[in-house]
Fold this protein.
Amino acid sequence: MTNQIPPISESEWEVLKVLWATSPQTANEIISSLPEQTGWSPKTVRTLLDRLTKKEVVGVHKDHRVFTFYPLYSQDECQRAKTKSFLKRFYDGTLKSMLVQFIEDEDLSEEEIKELRSILNKKENKK
């Protein structure tokens, strides 16, 4: 899909993770697939599904009286949109600022440093 993905709340993200793992699913299947630690009532889950449907992030198929839900965007598409939103909010859209801060603040293993170098080298070679 080429249209922009609307903002997705953390709670909605949890529902989407269930749908990305297996879809389509009914509301009851989603409710039983959610981790117990959410403690959400069935009504809360249905409200989240309703929001995701209105945002056009989740589609609904109605077969008689059974509604099944499925994601309209892949997990990768949503993660990329969330990353862009995060960069805009906290780093004025500048990836370099964020990367520098994370690299300076994190204790990276030798293996992680090698992996980062490899990614950067591949990126450089594409230019």
In short: The chain has two domains: 1-89, 94-127. The radius of gyration is 19 Å. The chain has a mean pLDDT of 88.
